[in-house]
Every structure is written in C-alpha cells, then in structure tokens.
Design brief:
about 70% helix; alpha+beta; 5-stranded mixed sheet; about 375 residues
C-alpha cells in the first residue's frame, strides 16, 4: 500500500515541478527549498515507526504544501489530496472522509486550476482504492495461507500420532503373541519334558532292581513324549498363518505403501481359491507385481493401478494394469525379462500390452 502512495506522490510532484518550470514563475529558490523540505519530511515519515510521529510528519507535510500553494504557487496544492489520503489510511478512518475531500476541497481551489485539481484528486483516489483492494486481497490470501499452514501442521501431527499409535499397536500385538507362544510352550511342552525326564530318571534307578517296572516307566515316557510332539505340531499349526494369507497380505501391504508414498491409487482384486496358490507361485506373483509398480511409477504417468488375481482350475491369471500413457514400442528391460524367466521356470507365460495404458498378464499353471 505504501509503495503505491509513494509512487503517486512522486508522479504528482514531478508533474507540479514540470508545470512550474513551463510557467516560468519566480521565487525558484523558495520553491526548491519547499520541495526539498517536503521530500525530507516524507522520508522521515517512512523511517519512523511510531504512529504519533508519523501523524505529526503527515500534518507537517500537508501544512507545508498549503503554505507553498497559498503564498508561492497554487500548483503545489495538487499534492494535498494524496497526503490527505495517506493520513486517512494510516489512521484507519472511515472512507467517508476521503469522499468528503473529493466533493468539498475543490470549492476552495482557484478556478484556474480547479479542473486539474479535481482530476488529480480523482486519480489519487482511484490509485488508493486499487492499492487498498490489492493490499486487502493479499492480506486475506496471507491469512488463508497461515490458516492452511496451521491445518497442515495439525494434520501432519495427527498423521504422525496415528502412525505412532499404529506402530505401538503392532508392537504390543507382537509382544502379546510372543507371550502367548511362550506360555503355551511352558504349559504344554515344558511340563511334558519335565515329567518325562523324571520318569526316565526313575526308570534308570529301577533298571537293575525291577526291569518290568522300569519298562513301564519307559513306555509311559514314550507315550507322553508322543503327545507332547503332537501338541507342539498343533501349536505351530495354529500360530503359522496360511500361505494364501501371507501372500495376499504382503501384496496388499505393498500396494498400500505405494498409494501412501505416491499419487497413484492402487486397487487389489482377487477371485477363486487362494489356497491353490503355492509359496513358489506367491513369490513369482509378488516380485512381478513389484516390478510392474516400479515401472508404472517411473514411466507411465498413471494415477490408478489395478491388480487382479484370478484362480481357475488349471491356471492362475495375474493382471497388473495402469491408466498411464502406455507404449506401442515395448522394449523389454531387465525387469520384464526377469519376470518372463521366472514364469518360464514353472511353465508359465507373460503377456504385455501397451495399447490402453500398460498391462502385464502372468499365466501360471497349477500342478
């Protein structure tokens, strides 16, 4: 805002000086002294920070211009409107005061310069309105920017807290699972081995004295150990997740990470019996999907990636498709060649299509 007012003052002052020179008026030294004094007062105005001192400088410059205009040359009265507008703006007075100046002040101006004075007054007021609105808009934008920054900080902190909470839950779940396993091992396996060890020690003591009773102890120990081994198998079977759960969840986790790190939305679909997919199949599928996603991020400019896993009677079909720019001239990189080699090792095939986006289809046999 101040820059516009300074610019306006400068233009009007130059205009007054040129008009004075063209008019061939006298008292040049007094005019130069008055103009230099006016410039000095205005420089002091922009250097000072206190509002009271600024107001004093404003009033002093207005008085100086009135004196120059009244006793030296009326041309310099042209500078009054912009100084008056600056005084109104700096004190946050109502806009009515400025409008009052437009309609009242020309009455006191000499007829010879009244027209020019009125035009300069309107010009100064127009510059002031445009500068005020621009400044107001900038302040609103800065205020909105600050609000958005605060909201962004709040969301960022919330995300961090959610991540910390999620990590804490995962860590607590792991501790609980480990504690559960340790408790089951202690309750079932520990007691079984301890009891078997005691019976074997008793059988050892009775081996020379009562072989028949010692044999009963050994037979009983063998039975208990068999039950203990079966209990271990059941416990491990309950703890170990199924291969289909491990496979599909690993892929889902990978796609979720890609969606969170990039602007690409990843979708996962599957149909059929996932239990028909072996560990070897899951490894090939996971590595291939990872390679496709990497290529999509690098080259395709896509916003959506869809992974569709279909299990039929004899084959597994895996399609990774994006909505990117595609390619009609497909050059097989090391990644694509690696996919083909992994699929061919188990009798599978890779089909690539770049006509509508980019699509990679894996056909894997079920043996």
């Amino acid at each position: 805002m101040n820059k516009w007012i300074i610019f306006n003052k400068f233009i009007i002052l130059i205009y007054c000086a040129l008009k004075y020179i063209q008019g061939g008026y006298g008292k040049d030294s007094l005019i130069i002294l008055g103009v230099l004094l006016y410039i000095a007062i205005n420089m002091i105005y922009y250097i000072m920070n206190k509002k009271e001192l600024k107001n004093m400088a404003d009033i002093l410059s207005i008085v100086l211009i009135i004196c120059l205009g009244s006793y030296v040359n009326s041309i310099f009265l042209f500078i009054i409107p912009i100084n008056y507008i600056q005084f109104i703006y700096s004190n946050n007075f109502n806009n009515t005061y400025t409008i009052g100046l437009i309609f009242i002040s020309p009455i006191f101006i000499h007829n010879s310069i009244r027209g020019e004075y009125f035009l300069i007054l309107l010009f100064s007021y127009l510059i002031y309105i445009l500068a005020y609105k621009s400044n107001y808009r900038i302040e609103k934008l800065l205020e909105e920017n600050d609000i958005l920054r605060e909201k962004n900080d709040i969301l960022f902190n919330k995300i961090n807290k959610d991540l910390e909470y999620e990590n804490q839950i995962m860590y607590t779940s792991k501790l609980e699972e480990r504690n559960k396993i340790a408790q089951e091992m202690h309750d079932k396996i520990g007691h079984t081995i301890s009891g078997s060890l005691m019976q074997l020690e008793a059988a050892k003591l009775l081996m020379d004295k009562d072989k028949e009773k010692a044999g009963l102890f050994v037979d009983n120990t063998i039975k208990v150990l068999r039950e203990g081994i079966e209990s271990i198998r059941i416990t491990l079977r309950n703890i170990k997740p199924a291969s289909e759960q491990m496979g599909i969840n690993r892929i889902r986790l990978m796609l979720n990470e890609v969606s969170s790190r990039t602007n690409i939305r990843c979708n996962l679909m599957h149909s059929g019996n996932l239990q028909n997919i072996t560990y070897a199949h899951w490894k090939i599928i996971y590595d291939s999907i990872k390679e496709c996603i990497t290529n999509t991020i690098k080259y395709s400019k896509a916003t959506i990636v869809t992974v569709n896993i279909q299990i039929f009677n004899k084959i597994i079909k895996v399609e990774v498709r994006d909505n990117g720019i595609g390619s009609f001239d497909i050059k097989k990189s090391m990644g694509i060649k690696g996919m083909e080699e992994r699929c061919e090792e188990i009798g599978g095939k890779v089909v690539i299509d770049g006509s509508k986006g980019f699509s990679v289809i894996l056909i894997l046999p079920i043996k």
